[in-house]
Structure formats: C-alpha cells, structure tokens
Write a structure and sequence with these properties.
Helix content is about 40%, strand content about 20%. It has about 200 residues and is an alpha+beta fold. It is globular.
C-alpha cells in the first residue's frame, strides 16, 4: 500500500502543477493589462508554493526592476531597481540558472540588502530566470520566512512559470495596444527579440 499512496501523492501533485499552468495560460488570452497579468501570476505562484513572498523583476536596460509582488510594496513597484549583476536575483539573470537556497539566504555573499524590503530577512530563496526567445528578460523569486527545502517539483514549476511569463511578455510586445501598459520602462527586450 505505501507504493500506491506514493503514486497517488505524485499524481495529485502533477494535477496541481497542470492546474497552475492552465491558469497561467488563461491569463495569456484574457483582456487584462500586463500589470494585472503579472500580479495574477504572482498570486498563483504564492498559492501553489505556499511561500511568504513572490517578487517578479523585469529587465529594463541594465536594471532589474521590481514589477509584481504578493506583498504590499506600492512604493517600490516600478521603482526598486538593481543592476543586472547585483544580488542573488542578478546572479540568476546573469547566469541564466535556477538558484535554490534552503536557509540563511541573507548570508550568501551574493545577497543584496535593500532595507525597505521585509524579504531581506527571509531564510529560503528560490529564483528562476524569466526567459523569452532564449534570452533572460527578468527573474521570479519565491521566498520563505523559515528554512525550506525546495523540492525538484518546485524548482521545475518555477522554471516553467518563468518560461510562461516570457511568453506573456512577447505577446505584450507584439500587441502593446491590447495590454494597456501602465508601467513605461523599456520592456526588457533587446531590439532584435521581436524579430
């Protein structure tokens, strides 16, 4: 019976992942602003991972700009920036790799403190690049207040979400009038990305 329970648990987890990806895909086809879509995706990631914080950064020139968050950061959305090579988030963007730290992420030598973010004190950190057409255009971070051992499934889900967000950004670039873009930065694409 333990084998059957294990299989049932894995099947339930796979079904949860599929539902998450379906919900994100539905955001891609709805008449919503890009900001609403990104906030909706962040909310779905929080629900799925049971994390305490989910932050999404988009590339604007050489800067990663905070553009969506599940925690109230109204004064920092669109304003909080870090260079492409700063912090754990910058490392993920630069290296184009997933990063998982289960405890004391704030002690990592690559960590950048902002001061205005409560997340500076969180223990666990999981981050994946947001990619479009094989280029990094942003980063999505998931954080837990307490230590948290990230599973392979969580890592795979965040990687896939990063790819889906990249598709959302390509769609927004292709039809900017329909996405009603309230944030006006350079939309994270090198000039040849839309070709």
């Amino acid at each position: 019976m333990p084998k059957a329970r294990d299989l049932e648990g894995r099947l339930q987890q796979t079904e949860r992942q599929l539902r998450l990806f379906q919900k994100i895909s539905r955001f891609m086809v709805r008449e919503m602003s890009l900001t609403e879509v990104l906030q909706g995706i962040v909310a779905l990631v929080v629900e799925f991972t049971q994390c305490d914080s989910c932050l999404m950064y988009l590339l604007d020139g050489e800067d990663l700009v905070l553009c969506a968050s599940n925690t109230p950061h109204p004064s920092t959305i669109g304003k909080l920036k870090m260079k492409w090579n700063e912090g754990l988030t910058g490392w993920v963007a630069r290296e184009r790799r997933l990063l998982a730290i289960s405890r004391e992420a704030y002690k990592d030598a690559r960590f950048k403190k902002f001061g205005e973010l409560e997340e500076d004190t969180y223990e666990a950190f999981l981050s994946a690049p947001v990619t479009a057409r094989n280029r990094v255009v942003g980063v999505i971070n998931v954080q837990h207040r307490l230590p948290h051992q990230h599973t392979g499934g969580e890592m795979e889900v965040l990687t896939t979400v990063g790819e889906q967000v990249g598709c959302v950004l390509v769609l927004a670039r292709m039809a900017p009038r329909r996405w009603n873009r309230p944030i006006t930065w350079n939309w994270c694409f090198p000039p040849d990305l839309s070709q």
